Amino acid sequence: MYTEQVTERFKKPRFMGEIQEADSTGEVGNVRCGDIMRVSIKVKDDRIADIKFKTYGCVAAIVSSDYLCELVKGKTLEEAENVTSKDVIERMGEVPAIKTHCSVLAQDALRKAIKDYRKKCD
Ligand code: FES
């Protein structure tokens, strides 16, 4: 069902956790399955200096979140906002079609965190 690459990443995610004293966090739920995703970010010079995620979710949600974090770390907030679930799935290699909706969770949580960060800075 999942590729070896996805299975290995699931066993050893690199960005799982929560940033203490994060500049912002975003939390969303997936209405289709009830799973929850929380993304915390640290911002420096308008870039994602650090990012972590915590989820109550499936393998696809965990792995796609980990790859999203990898993709956006170091990017400007605008660049990070423009990373899509399609980019994440490309990075993952392959995801069962029934699981593609799971890859949207972290993206939504990240966008929410960025939105809240901008609100705080206005
Ligand atoms: Fe809920 Fe994948 S089944 S996020």
Computed Rg:
13 Å
User: Could you tell me how far the N terminus lies from the C terminus, measured between alpha carbons in angstroms?
Assistant: 45 Å
Counting structural domains, the number is 1
Classified by CATH, the class is Alpha Beta
Poorly predicted spans: none
Task: Explain how this protein is built.
- The chain has 122 residues and is α+β, with helices and mostly antiparallel strands.
- It has one domain (4-121): Sufe protein. Chain: A (Alpha-Beta Complex).
- The protein contains five helices and three strands.
- The chain has helices spanning 4-11, 59-72, 77-81, 85-92, 104-121, and strands at residues 24-29, 36-44, 47-56.
- Strands 1-2-3 form a three-stranded antiparallel β-sheet.
- Helix 2 (59-72) packs across helix 4.
- The longest helix is centred in the C-terminal third of the chain and has 18 residues, at 104-121.
- It is globular, with a radius of gyration of 13 Å.
- The mean pLDDT is 93.
Brief sketch in words of this structure:
This protein is α+β, with helices and mostly antiparallel strands. It has a single domain (4-121), classed as Sufe protein. Chain: A, CATH 3.90.1010.10.
Task: List the topology elements.
Elements: H1 4-11, E1 24-29, E2 36-44, E3 47-56, H2 59-72, H3 77-81, H4 85-92, H5 104-121
Antiparallel strand pairs: 1-2, 2-3
Helix pairs in contact: 1-2, 2-4, 2-5
The structure holds FE2/S2 (inorganic) cluster.
What attributes does this structure have?
binds FE2/S2 (inorganic) cluster, Sufe protein. Chain: A, 122 residues, alpha+beta, single chain
